[in-house]
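Deliverable D5.2: sample structural annotation.
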Amino acid sequence: MLGHDSGDWQAAGATLGISHSPGSPLYTIIAWLFTHIPFGTEAARVNLVSAVVGAAGVVAVFIFVIMLLDRWLPALISAATLGLGGQWWAHASVAQPYNAVPTTIAVLLIILLLWQRRGDVRVVWCGALLTGAGLAYHPSLLYFTPVLAAGLFVLGPWRKVLRLKPMLIALLLLGLGLAIYAYLPLRSSMNPSVRYQPVDIRSHPCTGS
């Protein structure tokens, strides 16, 4: 088991505990599911989450550049540059939720391109669910939401989204992803074996005031 933050993430994932703020409940739940893989130590299985997410990020960047430029070489160079980057390797080899943020951004950029080309409101619904879940994985994704909102209104037929039914479905799916934050106060009330402090949903920085 690693020390400092990574050790905290490993322990939280192995025990369904609560790690340090902001908690990243979706990461903890996924890490716990990975601990049931029948090989390696529990700590190594939690580390594997970061490796899988890192690989997904490289693939997402490749797909995005292919869609944007319709050329293989820039896509390969972009994906290879990310995949071979020292910081990316560092984040992909230890237990932490941070590399999921750029991976989620890459997928959301793909969704924006699909929205521009197809104008299908179901694409927006997928993006809303992914955004909510991504914020539950790590809330620093919040900094990308202004770009996402701008792309939604600039690139596609935004009037479709503002109709009552599509808008309500989008908000429902966004809320469904964010609802994963309910894990923090619920699990905290059960006195889990790993936690920094009990979580009060009314004062948590990502869910309360």
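Annotation notes: Confidence is low (pLDDT under 50) at residues 203-209. The radius of gyration is 18 Å.
The annotation will be released with the project's public dataset once the embargo ends.
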